[in-house]
Amino acid sequence: MPGNPHTSVRSRQVAAELRALREQAGLSGAEVAKRMGMSPSKISQIETGNSGLQIEDVAALLGLYQVPAATRDELLDLVRRSEERGWWTRQPGLPKLWRTLIDFEAKATRIQNYEALFVPGLVQTAEYARAVIQGIAPTVSELDNLVAARMARQALLTRASAPQFCAVVDEGALRRPVGEPGVMHRQLQHLLVVAEQPHVTLRVVPLAAGAHAGLRGPFVILEFAEEPALVAVENQSIGLFLEEEVDLASYRLALGTILQTALAPAATSELITQIAAELG
Q: I need a surface site. Which of 19, 113, 210, 270 has the fewest CB within 10 A?
């Protein structure tokens, strides 16, 4: 069943959380429907965002799944605000925003990611990811779990229904030394391997390009088969998910402008090989 084109990102996030909570509880959709006195199709529609969320239904499901009060209040607040367009969260740490982005990535058919300061997360090595996370948030807890989560996130690029992935990165990010000696060399070699996959396109914006649209900051455009596209933006303390058409048009224009300054895939691989040789 096609997704509701008017479903907000808040509703989509609550729907995904409800599905995850049901699975964590070890219950099937049919079992939940029976206990709640609902039809299995209604549970399915709630979990896929194809049905408008009613706060009473969500509250009842959260009670069935024995969700802690803090999480319950947070999700119910999202339901109350589900008609608002766009979604944002302040980030005291990394995990919450990652869970949201990972869920959207898993359902996307096309992902386009521009990064100015480091290698895109979907193509990072574990040791590079660890060094980046430690550098960004030196006091972050559960570092091993965060690195493992980022590596698990990359599995979507190797599945049979892998999305089309376009990674665009500034040359400066490839030349910035991250981690212990050898980490960057291995990261660059990994990029060359990943770029050989038919559904992956890797482009580098050379330093010689000078000032360009990407200097305004990184972003991810996610497109879906049956749901509206989203733009994900993250800064020091706030994660944004934008869905208004004017925002989507703005970021698509920015990406197109950035790609005009980027090297072609073949030239990109040549440059990465050259930088890796310099480090080796």
A: 210
